[in-house]
User: What shape does this take?
Amino acid sequence: MRRSICRPAIVVPILAVLPLVVIAILGLQHQVHFSRMTRDVAAIARIHPLSGFLSSLGILLWWTSATLWLFSASVYRTLHLHKLFRFALATGSLSAYFALDDLYQLHESIAPNYLGVPEKGVFAILAVWTILYLVLCRHQLLKKNGTWMLLALVLLGASLMMDAVLEPQLMQLGQWSYLLEDGCKWLGIVCWCCFCLISCRCGMMALIRK
Assistant: This one.
């Protein structure tokens, strides 16, 4: 019991200090002013605070999903519910990746410019990862609330297709192309988060009733 209490007391401070250490190392190594990595993006770029409004909302929902799934995974692991643990961990990890991708433009900038992985390569890896997830977790996905996940995949897939394949054609629509692509993505994230909220709540309620 004492060990389980002491573990967060050690891990949390380390995780809290780690970003500060990373900022210091990157700043000194690449001669980037610390304020570029600590201040708000809108303040740095001197743009309106509501710039990227829909994208920011989407990131919040991605992190909400990731947090709930990973919390559920920790509960399932403690109770030795291994199948549910693996499903929650996989879904939470996928949600966290999507959040990081939207937050730091992993497939658009970080991977091609700093990791040497082209954008289409990232799309291919993501497609394989998603297919494996759907195949391995199909039983859990089809049990309950599968409609929300299906809608999420359709909408997110449509947004991805517009970004990767149909972008030249969509540009003819002018600013409406952004509303169409980003709107599909936003609705997909909402459906994904709904699947998360309902599934995690049902999972926790089932444990409480036992």
In short: The mean pLDDT is 87.
